[in-house]
Amino acid sequence: MALLDIENLSVSYGSIRALRGISLKVEPGEIVTLIGGNGAGKSTTLRTISGLLSPQEGQILFEGKPIASKSPHAIAANRLIHVPEGRGIFANLTVEENLRLGAYCRKDTHEIRQDYEHALELFPRVKERLWQLAGTLSGGEQQMVAIARALLARPKLLMLDEPSLGLAPQIVQLIFQVIRKINAGGTTILLVEQNANLALQVAHRAYVLEVGKIEMSGPAAELANSDDIRKAYLGGH
Amino acid sequence: MADFLQTLMTALAIGSLYALIALGYTMVYGVLKFINFAHSDIVVLGAWLSYSFAIRALPLVGLDAHNPATPPPIWMTAGIFVAVLLLCSLAGFLIERLAYRPLRRAPRLNVLITAIGVSLLLQNVGQLDFVFGASPQKMPALLPNWELPIQFGQGESIRYVVLPLIDCIIFAVSGLLMLALELLIFRTKFGTALRAVSFNTDFAALMGIPVDRAISLTFMLGSALAGAAGFLYVLKFPSMNQPAHSVWVLLGLKAFVAAVVGGIGNIRGAVLGGFIIAFVEQFGAYYISSNYRDVYVFSLLILILLIKPTGLLGSPVREKV
């Protein structure tokens, strides 16, 4: 059974249809990436899965159970965790408070402690900044806090929306190394990226979204070599 | 010196009341980014509930309802206080649930107009005969009328300052409530969640925080503080104006000014603003002229808005991108 199974999902903003019947699956242990240009509906897809938007049609099954009508906090409590575009950091809280909120739904104090240490090991730079207000961090550091915080929820499925957005190339490399590590630790990841090159390198499978429709899908390595993709997204010839 | 001390004590007591009310304005603004104009009516509700409970409770211990010979036992006064807090927080909960929550996704202006509507509704329902009625009443004394005289000078120039017990009680009770709120907001998991909600409701929901419940609790806390302010206010000023009287409106308005002066949305700012407003008002009234007491308050507001539009402690948090 797929961890996440989306069937024929349609979402509108008022009269504008952002998603026109998309279907996708994420199997346990995978990194699946959703690539596509601006306005293709990538963020809309994630926002609908996490309950911030409600679909007009279609269903979303998480671990076989429908979640499309649930509220976002109930979906997060099921450990389907969404790191939104722009990172979703609470600028008015300290880094430490931000991290603690990641474990908001958990009661297992001892394990939270372990996950906290583990998250800080992945991002040593975050550890130096624990008492700072999160709003004072650089964009890269904020992204690290956002991912570390998501890990504190012990996600079954981690959805990352454009983790590379606006970051320096070295930081992007570092973030993507960590994404690999997190996945190697057994966490399933759904990655939305505009940087298709990078996304296809790290993912197992990929879906290409264009104006609200899935245009192509398949193993990431195959798509990376397909001519259409190279022309449209990878700047190839 | 003597007059200074007396004015100081009054300013501290009044400042505590402004601060208690301002906290409700600022907390609601913090999470929902709109001014809850019905907040000052919760103060009135607290005041009039205190009166209604008092005149019903006093005969139970054999005292005259309107003019008790002695104050009631302290447990009765405390009981009335707690009942007022609970009912006011229930009122706050219901107002949010019935009037504001259906407008959660509506433009902010709609919510603002609704708040004015709720305020008018409460004022007019309060005047109905079977609610509180439209005539002024006198609050029976619930506390002993103790005063602490302090002597200054010698012989011919001897002077006394009389510090009323009620001022000390107002200051102490408000102080404890504000301390409790401070600890709740800045030292507990729930408080962290509330501050997260006030930054961004969507992000908070993604953490698994039940946003609607957090908003309900914000209204309940703010309304309980407003109820406390209403209770303490009528103990200090027992001549109660009818529920829609402009005295109440002005009280709420000054507390709102306190919240803005301190930096709306900022909890500590509301407390600071409450005391600043009361000090300007009381000292201005004593040393310059009491005819202009409202002028001092609103002039200060204009001044602050000119110099620091975000209020004294309000600093817009900039997000780096």
Automatic annotation (TrEMBL), chain B:
Pfam families attached to this UniProt entry: BPD_transp_2
Entry's family note: Belongs to the binding-protein-dependent transport system permease family. LivHM subfamily.
Keyword annotations: Amino-acid transport, Cell inner membrane, Cell membrane, Membrane, Transmembrane, Transmembrane helix, Transport
GO terms for biological process, alphabetical: D-alanine transmembrane transport; L-alanine transport; L-isoleucine import across plasma membrane
Location of this chain's protein in the cell: Cell membrane
Membrane-crossing residue ranges in chain numbering: 12-35, 42-62, 74-95, 107-126, 158-181, 217-235, 247-264, 270-288, 295-314
Gene Ontology terms for molecular function: L-isoleucine transmembrane transporter activity; L-leucine transmembrane transporter activity; L-phenylalanine transmembrane transporter activity; L-valine transmembrane transporter activity
GO CC terms of this entry: plasma membrane
Listed name of the protein: ABC transporter permease
Membrane-topology descriptor: Multi-pass membrane protein
Superkingdom classification of source: Bacteria
Chief location of this protein within or outside the cell: membrane
